[in-house]
């Protein structure tokens, strides 16, 4: 379950080529949908963003990033490293924000 403020949800539409490219990555963790809603907090600062796919590069994931009314780019971004104080997740591991480093809006917690 994700715990954070309501999401922005402004969508971006990925090209069929990008859907295919990121569906076929080794060890894919996500189903890549053509429409990707912004996962950041409602009224966040900065660009919109949606996770597209996992990466074989530790500590990084592929994110679609865009401004309203503009095209998107897909970038391999480092994960946010902010830890939710005083809360442990599965296996007594710390709960870490599930967004990318330096994202706009509140942190996103997977509990």
Instruction: State the low-pLDDT regions, or none.
Output: none
Largest sheet: 3 strands, antiparallel
Strand order of the largest sheet: 4-5-6
Number of strands: 9
Strand content: 35-45%
Mean pLDDT: 88
| Order of H and E elements | EEHEEEEEEE
In angstroms, what is the radius of gyration? 14 Å
Domain count: 1
Number of helices: 1
Structural class: mainly beta
How far apart are the termini? Answer: 5 Å
Task: Please characterize this protein's 3D structure.
By secondary structure, the chain is mostly beta strands. It has one domain (2-110). 7% of the residues lie in helices and 36% in strands. It contains 1 helix and 9 strands; from the N terminus they run ββαβββββββ. A 3-stranded antiparallel beta sheet has the order 4-5-6, with no helix packed on it. The protein is globular, with a radius of gyration of 14 Å. The model has no long low-confidence stretch (mean pLDDT 88).
